[in-house]
Design goal:
This protein has 271 residues and is α+β, with helices and mostly antiparallel strands. It is built from 10 helices and 6 strands; from the N terminus they run H-H-H-E-E-H-E-H-H-E-H-E-H-E-H-H. The structure holds zinc ion.
């Protein structure tokens, strides 16, 4: 009996150890599977962010090299909230380094018989002008809004011709022209999201309209696109008359951060 009991408790101990080992093995296997799944999730997020960034490049945000630098060398992952903003049509960046797609035609609506604006933003523009007038600023009008890339080419040719008639060389005429007019597909006017007010000159700064716009344009989604203190970043001389539609959310954020569009896009890529 004694012996039998001893054997019995020994068997029990062995069984306990066996079950214990099984449990440890199961925990180990489950842990390994979990680590594997989590790792893969992380990778797919990064790949997703990279794919999103590359799609941004296609619609003209930046060069692909920059995107690769941002994603591999600095290993920075842009947040989903920022990616949403970067993919928004309201923030499309067009300048001499970021040409718009040549086949892009914005949805257009008529301001009057001669002028058009992006149909998605035209109400903001017309309401802003109406409210300016209601505030006692009678002397305000949208002089230049949407321009087709062909019209942009025409303007460049006309300006070059004028400089040539003034006795400039071909090269001087082109350089002087491109200081004031962007090349086709490089102008926000080709996007249909920019407006030049009144006589498109520096006298606009002295009108009542200018300080009103500085204070209120963000409520309608417009920003002063080429500020005086950002010339080295925008690479465009100060233009008090040129206002760009970006929507109220971004206009307010850009103004509160003190960033021009080029800086704001960089800011979003890094946040
Ligand atoms: Zn303009």
């Amino acid at each position: 009996m004694e012996d039998k009991k001893g054997k019995h408790s020994e068997n029990c101990e062995n069984r306990k150890i066996f079950i214990y080992r099984i449990v440890v093995a199961i925990i180990l296997i489950v842990s390994i599977i979990l680590v594997y799944i989590l790792n893969n999730l992380g990778n797919s997020k990064e790949v997703g962010a990279m794919a999103n960034n590359i799609s941004n490049e296609i619609i003209g945000f930046n060069s692909i090299e920059n995107s690769i630098v941002n994603n591999t060398i600095t290993t920075h992952v842009t947040s989903e909230e920022s990616l949403r903003k970067l993919n928004d049509w309201k923030l499309v960046l067009v300048n001499n380094d970021n040409k718009m797609a040549e086949d892009y035609v914005p949805p257009l609506a008529n301001i009057d018989s001669a002028r058009q604006f992006d149909a998605r933003a035209i109400n903001s523009l017309t309401q802003m002008i109406l409210d300016m007038k209601a505030a006692g600023i009678k002397n305000i009008w949208a002089q230049s809004t949407y321009r087709s890339p062909d019209k942009q080419k025409e303007l460049i040719e006309e300006s070059i011709q004028e400089y040539l008639e003034d006795g400039k060389t071909e090269e001087e005429a082109r350089t002087l022209t491109l200081r004031g007019i962007e090349e086709p597909y490089s102008s926000e006017h080709n996007l249909g999201l920019a407006v030049d007010f009144n006589n498109v000159d520096y006298a606009f700064e002295e009108t009542k309209a200018f300080p009103w716009l500085v204070k209120n344009a963000e409520k309608y989604g417009f920003v002063l696109r080429y500020p005086k203190d950002k010339e080295n970043i925008t690479k465009i001389k100060y233009e008090p008359w040129h206002w760009r539609y970006v929507g109220t959310e971004y206009a307010k954020e850009m103004n509160s951060l003190g960033l021009c569009l080029e800086e704001y896009i960089e800011y979003l890529k890094n946040n």
